[in-house]
Amino acid sequence: MNTIKRWISFLTAVILIVLLLYKFVFFVVVVPSASMYPAIEIGDRIITSRIHNYSSIERGDILVFYSEEFRETMIKRVIGLPDDLVEINKNGEVFVNNKKLDEPYVKYPDNLSGSFSVPEGKYFFLGDFRIHSMDSRKWKEPFISEDKILGKAKLIIFPLDRIKIINSEE
Fold this sequence. Notes:
By secondary structure, this protein is mainly beta. Helix content is 14%, strand content 34%. It has one helix spanning 2-24; strands at residues 26-30, 45-50, 62-67, 72-80, 85-88, 94-96, 99-100, 114-117, 122-126, 144-145, 149-158, 164-165. The strands form 2 sheets. Strands 1, 2, 3, 4, 9, 10, 11 and 12 form an 8-stranded antiparallel sheet that branches. A 4-stranded antiparallel sheet has the order 7-6-5-8, with no helix packed on it.
């Protein structure tokens, strides 16, 4: 009987630790679309670290967030930070605050143009597979509030042949 109590205590502690880690440190997301191809593919499972300090978000980070408009969790690359001016020309080139972005991760650009002034506390997102990405350029409300940002993509853990650390530059 004593052994059973120890096992129950041990399992309870393990479950509690896992739940706390999931709530405050990291979670796993399954990628539902090809909008981030080739960096991330459909079906990839990604360990995502929770963001507790929004000032740590950098342009180029791949973030997981909740879209109120689509009522779903999405994963995209953050391009515009609060107070940025994002301009996309007819050739699909992206300029932030009048400086052209170097985007080696974009293999399939799009010619959808526009100008977006990012409000305080909000972010502008683009997918890497621009011609097939449902992103800020196409949303009714092109910005995501910081309180809807869930975390930063860190590591692809499945499928096993794609295990890799996610680099914001590729």
